[in-house]
Amino acid sequence: MKKVSFAEFGGPDVLELVDAEEPHAGPGLIRIAVRAAGVNPVDWRVREGQVLKAHPLELPSGVGLDAAGVVDEVGEGVEGIAVGDPVFGEGASTYAEFAVLSAWALMPEGLSFEEAAGYPSVVETALRVIGQTGVEPGQTLLVSGASGGVGSAVLQIARERGITVIGTAGAANLDYLRDLGALATTYGEGWVERVRRLGRPDAALDLAGSGVIPELVELTGDPGRVVSIADLGAPDHGVLFSGTAGSVPDALAEARDLIERGKLHIPVAKSYTLAEAAAAHIDSQAGHTRGRRVILV
Fold first, then answer.
1. Which of 108, 174, 202, 283 lies 20 to 30 Å from 267 when distance is taken between CA atoms?
2. 157-186: string of b/e by CB count within 10 Å (b at 16+)?
3. pTM
């Protein structure tokens, strides 16, 4: 089978499309014929060697956590799923023609594989970090870097829970944030005052890692109400860096419910082939994404 792999840590150029042995589903796991794989910032952070504590690996290593596809092997002890079922979920080395998943759910009705691949890690992360901030219905959540996949999910989940969201993004994405129910303003010089004019945040999320942790602490008045998924220096400011997943099966079940009720939709910003994985990482690292990036297999 074809698989994207890297033999050393480094930039996008270390990614190679190689011939590899097919993986197989062990006990409690399933294997899918991959139709699409989600592109997440954690993918290139792992490739660079940034987050090895949360994602230990041996080189050479495959790439990717999220995927959607068709079940073609069911491991011992797995119930409620059968060969031929369309699923989306999380596993390892998903930039490949076949991948083993450790968490999965049946795909929501009406969703394409391309769309479904963009949800698993994004929704798990959004649910996790909303919970970690302690923000409650009726309060206000500030989201820095709100137009990407996780931000898109946070805005919609928060709105469903009765939480007001202030989101920052580039000027081109402000209408997108407003369409998702957020109060929106641009980042850059003067952004703190622009946020204050929109409301007083009770909690804040750093989704972009753009060096704004001190300002988020200032705006909320409490480092314990700020969470980052993108700035490894967050603990230096007393802020939680959230890098370890919670319950992915629970997140997939909630994602499926929200999608089927029309409460969650994350657009696909751009799709790539397996051979274009390096380009996908370059674009992901550049930021300014509206929605999700995926690799079609």
1. 202
2. bbbeeebbbbbbbeeebbebbeebbbbbbe
3. 0.90
